[in-house]
Amino acid sequence: QVDEKWDFVLVSDFHEVGSQKETKRRKFLDELSKKGFTIKKIEDEKLFHGVRAPKQIFRKYQWLLRNPDATNSKPDAHCEVPVTTRIRIVHFILHHTVTPDFEKLHDLMKKKVFEAAFPLHQKEEVTEYLKEKWARWRVIFCRQPIEKIRSYFGEKVALYFAWLGWYTYLLGFAAVVGLVIFVAGITVFNSSQVSKEICEATDTVMCPLCDQKCPFWLLSDTCTYAKVTHMIDNEGTVVFAMFMAIWATVFLELWKRQRATVVTNWDLYKWDEEEEELAMELINDMQHKPQQYQHSYFRSTIILLLVLVMIAVLIGVAHGLVIYRVVATAFFTQSEFEFLREQANTVAVMTGAVLHYITIVIMTKVNRRVALYLCDLEKPRTLSQRENNFTVKVFTFQFFTNFSSLIYIAFFLGRINGHPGNYVRIAGKWRLEECHPSGCITDLFIQMAIIMLLKQSISNVVEFLSPWVTHKLRKKRQHPRKRSMMSGEEDEEEEEDPCKSHWVNNYRLNEVEFLSLFDEFLEMVIQYSFTTIFVAAFPLAPLLAFCNNLLEIRLDAIKMMRLCRRIVPWKANDIGIWLQILEAIGILAVIGNGLVIAITSDFIPLQVYKYTYSPCTTENSTALDCSTGYINHSLSVFRVQDFEPHTKVPKMLPGHEITEYRDYRNADDYSYTVQFWHIFAARLAFLILFEHVALCVKLIAAWYVPDVPKSVKNEFRVRKHNNLRKELRWVMPWGDPP
């Protein structure tokens, strides 16, 4: 029959009659038959078994999980459960059915008894609608049909796309503000007093950048680099950092309201995941006993130690990137190519960023395996608990993988390298890097720009092309099999079963991993971290994220609808532990941006100079730029004869016996000057003030925007009132005899 509906399809190879694998397969199918399942076998290049659950299973589900706060709380025997619910229940029963050999489907798939188990993409009106109105590049700017997505893929997938759509929508506002700040920076490209002084410093001789074959150089040689730095590092940076701290809070608060509205319309606001799990356990096996919550302090301690070891490894990888940059800088400064010699530091930063991206790609796979191993050690009680544990571990590992190198550039580069005559060296040979006299923020800008561009270009291309190419190859490679030599059944001429092509086409689609939706969430949350935590150094991050997300939504839609098998439609009423992770990122964003402005940026030293040491403090001329003389004030003097003995001092420029470097040190004993401690105190004061103000604004915003709209609360109140009124109709009037 063409209109036959099958809940799941099991696929296996052809096994010899009487073989161990064939026996195990038969035992599993027999167990399903005992539970009332209808099973249909079709042979092609593989052996397909379609399974359909009996109606009484779904009636039990309806009765056990009737929602007293729902608009219609009385189960109707004639009202069929949604297809998404059918698939979810059947998936649960399939994976919890035990054979006489005490094996489950997961064990049988490991032993290659079954190759695959998946629900089918149905040829329905909603399928065609989603293919035409959602999974198309031409509708990239259109609103997503969340209700249709929910009716086909379930609430968990629908909430992911609802969250991603809401995040992208609000990201548009941040992208506009970031673009305005960046354009404003471009307008001061040639007008900054600080960069003018660097460009005019033709007689300021700077210390060599390495110990061997590196010449003295003029400060004016870095004129363009200084202009770029002050295009990024200006007063607008501070404003944008504060804006993004507030934006992150407002985004999450508005999402909570949006989510409350959505799940209320789905009658899921007070849905209990544990109750649903217990109900399905009882439907599958009436003799089932609930698993008890367990906690082992010994096991938790072991897990914690292993997590710390993994974090130490990831920090070690970041140290490897630092060593690469140091060695590369020394190598490029001795290159035969003039361009590499002149731009040694910039080239080292850029190649280091590319290497950082490669380590991210590699360590992402390693992090997943380690996190899965740690989850197996924890032995979580439920599927959701396992997913939450896995999520926290993978995000922690990914955070250190992505941000360890950025943290070094932002907060340690140029601050732990010592000073001329007493440099800090790696293995006693290579000097640590120094910051440019105009600051280190450009290095952070370059690093973030390269990583974000590579992640959002190469990763997206691979994410789409990999399943597309795999799907095309599977279709081309696999051909129908006319008869089964291994099954021991005679070949019979019969009409083509209408289910056959449907099942085979679904099988030829790409396999859906259990954690496929997790991967999408992780990708977006890491992007959210890039967009908020170091956004002070890279105001274009929201714009890049916004453009990427417009493509990401349709890319994920096309994969789910056209290239991959149907995902199991899980039920959910929120985005789970991801919300707590996003809130933690919001707090890290305040701390990170405060530290970038206070430590990485030249904003604080410049302000201290303007109001304490500049000509404006002694002269009343309004025409004078208060930053005049800042560069000369921020440089310290070094005598050439004080270089370390093993340093190969290059030939000095005629007429110069002293050289300069970026720091606040005395010329006599190279100790810190009073200005250094003034700036240090100002940095600390700004950091405390910025973070307290930003956190207060976040708390006010969280209080001002209620998590649950009043309309939702009122709707629940009306439902409860109506349900109580209905119950009262069955109560006998007081005083009447029983």
Largest sheet: 4 strands, antiparallel
Structural class: mainly alpha
Oligomeric state, counting identical vs distinct chains: single chain
- Helix share of residues? 55-70%
User: How many domains would you count in the coordinates?
Assistant: 3
Fraction in beta strands:
5-15%
Strand order of the largest sheet: 2-3-1-4
DSSP E strands, number: 12
Helix tally equals: 24
From the N-terminal CA to the C-terminal CA, the straight-line distance is 56 Å
Rounded Rg: 32 Å
List the helices and strands and how they pair.
Elements: E1 8-12, H1 20-34, E2 38-43, E3 47-52, H2 55-64, H3 83-96, H4 105-110, E4 116-118, H5 125-133, H6 146-153, H7 155-187, H8 193-200, E5 205-206, E6 217-218, H9 223-232, H10 235-265, H11 273-284, H12 297-333, H13 338-342, H14 344-378, H15 383-411, E7 418-419, E8 422-423, E9 425-426, E10 430-431, H16 441-477, H17 498-507, H18 516-532, H19 541-563, H20 578-600, H21 603-613, H22 630-634, E11 635-639, E12 658-662, H23 674-704, H24 710-728
Pfam family, one: Anoctamin
Subcellular location: Cell membrane; Membrane
Protein name: Anoctamin
